[in-house]
């Protein structure tokens, strides 16, 4: 129940709370207050602004002129430096070219000398991979062919198995065509067995031993190329000894003909068995170019072709460093530009287990 005392108390409290606000409202109504802002509170019109200080304007203009002058001089300096830089680069390129040209001169002179000893090439195949030059030659007792090869890349030369399979065989011409090579020469010796034809002794293809390592015996040697396209060869008593040469591919036969430009002693057996025959030999030059000699002969009876001693003299005359006798007789094969160059003593090319191939 709400009593009169409670109502009076509430009214008194409310009046006290709103009294200040009522007083302010009454004061505003009876007073005459005007709020005004000075002219400084508003931006002056542009036309009425004070004129600029001419001294400061001249000073600023002079500063701009100096800045433009410095910019122009800087631009000219940069252009001069750029011109000097380009001239220096051109001169350095010219010096580098001359240095490279001068460095090549001894090699070019050397190549000219060894090529001159062979005569004029009958045909040349040249590409980024190799340069192969074919020469037709005539000696007193036989006709022969020289193939000088400069290898310019890793893929310029390889050795393949007949039909790419151990125990299989094919002619050098068939291998050339199948692998799309530009030239080919017969490689190592072979042995027949069980209706198959196997490479003789240690043989390496694509860096792998096809039938394991076999230590040198009966005057056999291994000859092939290493990772740097350098001719490596000789007699090896252990696989570690051969592996140290880093062979990429190679084959075996007999005998070694030349060492460091000097003829080696030919074993008696190989001087007369046969005395004369179709032959294939491989040698190298000081600049790592290769030289193959392929000799014609009518048969393998010893009545035609070249002796190993005569081939030693030819290799020396042509300036070779190391020389090796490859399989000969009816195995001698030389293919150049898709054509058989030599005259096979069998009347046709013999099927062989290994071939050296060259690629353009």
TrEMBL record:
Pfam families attached to this UniProt entry: NAGPA
Record-linked InterPro entries: NAGPA (IPR018711)
Annotated Phosphodiester glycosidase domain residues: 180-359
Protein name from the UniProt record: Exopolysaccharide biosynthesis protein
Organism: Paenibacillus harenae
Lineage: Bacteria, Bacillati, Bacillota, Bacilli, Bacillales
């Amino acid at each position: 129940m709400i009593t009169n005392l409670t109502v009076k108390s509430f009214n008194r409290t409310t009046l006290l709370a709103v009294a200040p606000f009522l007083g302010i409202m009454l004061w505003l109504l009876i007073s005459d207050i005007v709020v005004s802002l000075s002219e400084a509170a508003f931006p002056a019109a542009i036309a009425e602004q004070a004129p600029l200080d001419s001294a400061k304007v001249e000073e600023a203009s002079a500063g701009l002129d100096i800045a433009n002058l410095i910019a122009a001089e800087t631009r000219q300096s940069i252009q001069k430096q750029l011109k000097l830089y380009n001239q220096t680069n051109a001169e350095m390129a010219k010096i580098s070219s001359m240095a490279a040209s001068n460095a090549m001169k001894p090699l070019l002179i050397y190549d000219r000398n060894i090529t001159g000893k062979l005569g004029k090439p009958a045909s040349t195949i040249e590409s980024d991979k190799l340069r192969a030059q074919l020469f037709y030659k005539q000696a007193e007792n036989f006709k022969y062919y020289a193939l000088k090869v400069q290898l310019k890349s890793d893929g310029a030369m390889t050795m393949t198995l007949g039909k790419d399979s151990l125990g299989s065989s094919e002619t050098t011409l068939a291998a050339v065509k199948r692998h799309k090579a530009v030239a080919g020469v017969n490689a190592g010796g072979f042995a027949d067995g069980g209706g198959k034809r196997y490479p003789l002794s240690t043989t390496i293809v694509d860096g792998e031993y096809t039938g394991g390592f076999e230590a040198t015996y009966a005057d056999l040697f291994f000859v092939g190329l290493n990772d740097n396209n350098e001719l490596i060869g000789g007699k090896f008593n252990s696989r570690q000894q051969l592996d140290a040469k880093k062979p990429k591919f190679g084959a075996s036969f007999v005998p070694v003909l030349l060492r460091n430009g000097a003829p080696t002693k030919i074993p008696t057996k190989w001087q007369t068995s046969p005395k004369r025959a179709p032959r294939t030999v491989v040698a190298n030059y000081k600049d790592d170019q290769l030289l193959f000699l392929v000799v014609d002969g009518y048969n393998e009876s010893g009545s035609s072709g070249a002796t190993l001693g005569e081939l030693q003299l030819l290799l020396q005359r042509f300036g070779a460093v190391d020389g090796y006798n490859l399989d000969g007789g009816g195995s001698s094969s030389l293919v150049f530009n898709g054509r058989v160059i030599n005259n096979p003593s069998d009347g046709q090319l013999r099927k062989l287990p290994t071939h050296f191939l060259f690629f353009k």
